[in-house]
Write a structure and sequence with these properties.
The complex is a heterodimer of chains A (about 240) and B (about 350). Chain A has a single domain, classed as Rossmann fold (3-Layer(aba) Sandwich), CATH 3.40.50.970. Helices cover about 35% and strands about 15% of the residues of chain A. Chain A contains nine helices and seven strands. The N and C termini of chain A lie far apart (about 45 Å). By secondary structure, chain B is α/β, with parallel strands linked by helices. Chain B has twelve helices and 13 strands. Classes of the chains: A alpha/beta (about 240), B alpha/beta (about 350). At the A-B interface, strand 2, helix 2 and helix 4 of A face helix 3, helix 4 and strand 7 of B.
Chain lengths: ~240, ~350
């Protein structure tokens, strides 16, 4: 029998701790496939965030570090500056990158650090129990916006990628979605490009934002979550190459 | 050279790979010096966007096995406490220099010793210690750097240099230690086989501080404590003078120790027997030396530029065997030889009554 699909070697063979329908599993696989296709497993250092993906090193078979909430871009700076031959990437959720770590991501981009950032936007704090994130949609019900997020008092969803794109040091910013096979293929191409830029010593930060389903805290079925990304989230967070 | 510059050059000579820092008075000479000298040596200098970022850049460089440091002053060091707790938990070696200023809050930019508690009792969350040094001259500020890096590497722990605005700003003749073996007893340092260097032909390395399994963090704490007991056993450094026949023993560190030493000499000229104990490591603390001195029941006078912080550790070491008296000035007030001498005379008068 011919093997038509197999697990990519950098993705470890282990059971997942993520919820059914969660996007992290897809994102993990895509990142690992890209690492293997580019042949950089032995010189890649990954950074796990605080959030649902804090245990990312249980899935990625590369050297990895787990850091304080939001500080990944600063830690990555320390690593890449002292190890310019290594490929350094951070994997961060929207609580990590868009709330507590806003200063770190903006200044890493501002300094044109040669880093690759995988930004998972599921519009909610997952690990702590589904609280409002800066990226939470207006009207979205969370543990801390039980009547739905209101712009008055809770602000509007934060478009971090668009914010970063205005900085000269951010050389590539693209938003994709983990919501259909076609979109997932696009997301993989974007991730590959983001890693290639670092491999080719491009002078600046590249970031791929992935709109990712969180059926548990969106209170939706996995298929409905996929449709929610395509039909609702893209109204605020449109797909496409924002820069580069 | 001023203390800040001498310390910076000593760090470079000790093999510093990367410096990360954010401007704050009175340690700005360090960032300025590093911004010039590190690129000259083809090493890394980054001016971070905050002290939070600086300590996390240190975390990143340390995780890859590089020699790395940051420096700041009191308010900035407060911001770094999160990172220091993570560094201690993940057992990453690095050096953090605190050129203390008056506090609390923004305080002022005058010299102080108000961060003793923060440095030796933890500072960040969780049960941990950093090795803490209290240099009392520009020369010692420089000499401690290679030692601090070596001990940080040996024990896989952050080391803190607790200097103050006087030590940082004062100019004195100084010889930069160019051979770290001068002060490190020819330490054979362990290989950093835990470092993140890319899993090339070996198993994945992970640097972490989260352990969710039942009892795993408890065990991690016991392991850390076992390491701290080793440090206490091996690394206490302290200087004593004229303690044996003393009626009064002054305990002071940093610049206060120099002032106290001068006061002690002047007292001796008047026939008052005063000795000095100067902790060089503030953690581990020289409790045994102090306890031994207490056996002869002198009066202990603890002098600090604070409202009394190290005095608590002196009391613990003395354990009721002798009276312990505190005198100090907080918030940027500088202690003087005259005032310490006055205090000595008062104590003797009172004792004779």
């Amino acid at each position: 029998m011919q093997t038509v699909f197999k697990r990519t070697p950098t993705l470890k063979d282990c059971p997942t701790h993520y919820c059914p329908g969660c996007g992290h599993g897809i994102a993990h696989r895509l990142v690992c496939e890209v690492i293997d296709e580019l042949g950089i497993q032995s010189r890649t250092i990954g950074i796990a965030p605080v959030g649902c993906a804090v245990l990312a090193y249980d899935y990625f078979d590369v050297d990895m570090v787990e850091v304080a909430h939001g500080r990944a871009p600063a830690v990555a700076t320390g690593m890449k500056r002292t190890n310019p031959d290594k490929i350094v990437f951070s994997y961060q959720g929207d609580g990590d990158l868009a709330a507590i770590g806003t200063a770190e991501i903006i200044h890493a981009a501002h300094r044109a650090e040669q880093l690759t950032v995988v930004f998972i936007n599921n519009a909610v704090f997952g690990m702590t129990g589904g609280q409002m994130a800066p990226t939470t949609m207006l009207g979205q019900i969370t543990a801390t916006t039980q009547q739905g997020r209101q712009a008055d008092g809770q602000g509007y969803p934060l478009n971090v990628s668009e914010l970063l794109a205005v900085l000269p040091g951010a050389i590539y910013v693209e938003r994709c979605g983990l919501c259909s096979p076609a979109h997932i293929r696009k997301a993989k191409a974007a991730l590959k490009h983001a890693f290639e830029l670092q491999i080719n010593n491009a002078k600046g930060l590249s970031l791929v934002e992935l709109l990712s389903p969180c059926p548990t805290y969106w209170r939706m079925t996995p298929p409905d979550s996929m449709l929610h990304i395509q039909n609702e989230m893209t109204k605020v967070f449109p797909f496409g190459r924002i820069k580069g | 050279m001023c203390g800040n510059e001498a310390m910076a050059e000593a760090a470079i000579q000790a093999g510093l790979d990367a410096y990360f820092g954010y401007p704050i008075t009175p340690q700005n000479e360090v960032t300025a010096y590093m911004s010039q000298r590190m690129p000259e040596e083809k090493r890394v200098f980054v001016q971070s966007e905050s002290e939070l970022a600086a300590i996390n850049m240190v975390f990143g460089a340390a995780a890859t096995g590089k020699r790395t440091m940051t420096s700041s002053s009191s308010p900035g060091i407060s911001l770094m406490q999160e990172g220091i707790s993570y560094l201690a938990a993940a057992e990453l070696p690095c050096v953090i220099v605190n050129v203390m200023r008056g506090g609390p809050g923004l305080g002022n930019i005058a010299p102080s010793q108000g961060d003793y508690f923060q440095s030796v009792k933890g500072g960040g969350h969780g049960d941990y210690h950093c090795i803490v040094f209290g240099p009392s001259s520009v020369q010692e500020f420089a000499d401690i750097m290679p030692l601090a890096f070596d001990l940080a590497d040996k024990y896989r722990t952050p080391a803190i240099i607790l200097a103050d605005g006087i030590i940082g700003q004062m100019m004195e003749p100084v010889v930069i230690p160019t051979n770290s073996k001068l002060t490190t007893q020819n330490l054979k340092l362990p290989k950093k086989d835990w470092a993140l260097t890319g899993a090339d032909g070996r198993k994945q390395n992970i640097v972490r501080s989260l352990w969710l399994g039942d009892g795993v963090v408890e065990q991690h704490n016991y392991d850390l404590q076992a390491k701290y007991r080793q440090i206490e056993k091996n690394e206490i450094r302290c200087e004593q003078s004229d303690v044996d026949d003393a009626d009064i023993v002054i305990v002071a560190y940093g610049i206060c120790a120099r002032i106290a030493r001068r006061a002690a000499q002047q007292a001796r000229e008047q026939g008052i027997k005063v000795g000095c104990i100067r902790p060089i490591t503030l953690w581990p603390f020289p409790s045994e030396s102090i306890s031994k001195a207490a056996d002869k029941s002198p009066i202990f006078l603890v002098v600090e530029m604070s409202c009394g912080q190290m005095v608590e550790d002196v009391r613990l070491a003395v354990a009721g065997k002798s009276p312990v008296v505190f005198w100090g000035r907080p918030g940027g007030g500088i202690v003087t030889v005259e005032k310490v001498l006055e205090k000595i005379e008062q104590l003797i008068k009172k004792a004779k009554k």
